[in-house]
Amino acid sequence: MMEFDPLLLLFAALACFTGAYVQTAIGFGMAIIAAPILFYLDPALVPGPLAFVILMMCLINGWRFRKGLEIGLLAPALLARIPGSLVGVWLLGVMSPSWLAILIAFTIMLGVLVRLCNLALPTNGATLSLGGFLSGVMGTSTTIGGPPMVLVLHGADMHRIRANLAGFFLISSLMSVIALIGGGYFGQPQLLQSLPLVPAALLGNWLAVHTLHLVSRPVMHYGSLGLCTLAVIGMLFNTLA
């Protein structure tokens, strides 16, 4: 386990640092980058410990973007996420680690396709509800709940996307942690595993805020997508080989 392995802890912290930097820069990406790496290092780090790390980072981003938050817009998605979270907990109880790895890979590649194809759906009550439900299922079972909501909000301007994703992820990540606690997938052992990773995520968040003007958006965009793809390949090779 990671508390006894400094090298594993270092790689896990680097994954959380990188994921936090990317999410702060483009609005999502923390779990897409960190989840496959943490799963590769130790499957016990996903979803519980990573979900807690994401919650801590979302608290910071939610506060930063609070003025642009549109609760009325997000209400259908947040309400639909509740049953989605329950389905996610159920999946954890019936899926083997191999199938969980496949689900993580699928959700990651969905996020990659969203960014590559520049897909956009109409933003209305129906699409927000569907996005919220799927985000609950994916976010609770794999910690990767961003792609469905990014697909729904993709047509908005960048500031609006960042603000509303920050608010949605704050509330939804809290739902996921509560659901994981209720399902017996998050307790003191998972909390202790997550605590060393929180400073790395907060550092990535802070650094992104202060250096975004130095980073080319295309480099960040395609670099993060390439990293996601390589992470999926590595995770599936390690799980299914």
How is the topology of this model organized?
Layout: H1 6-26, H2 30-41, H3 48-64, H4 71-94, H5 97-117, H6 125-142, H7 146-153, H8 158-182, H9 188-194, H10 198-211, H11 217-240
Helix pairs in contact: 1-2, 1-10, 2-5, 2-11, 3-8, 3-9, 3-10, 4-6, 4-8, 5-7, 5-11, 6-7, 6-8
Report, as a whole number of angstroms, the end-to-end distance: 22 Å
Percent of residues in beta strands: under 5%
Mean pLDDT: 86
Please tell me what the overall shape is.
Answer: globular
Structural account:
The protein is mainly α and 241 residues long. The chain has one domain (2-240). It is 79% helix and 0% strand. The chain contains 11 helices and no strands. It has helices spanning 6-26, 30-41, 48-64, 71-94, 97-117, 125-142, 146-153, 158-182, 188-194, 198-211, 217-240. The radius of gyration is 16 Å and the shape is globular. The chain starts with 5 loop residues before the first helix and ends with a helix. The model has no long low-confidence stretch (mean pLDDT 86).
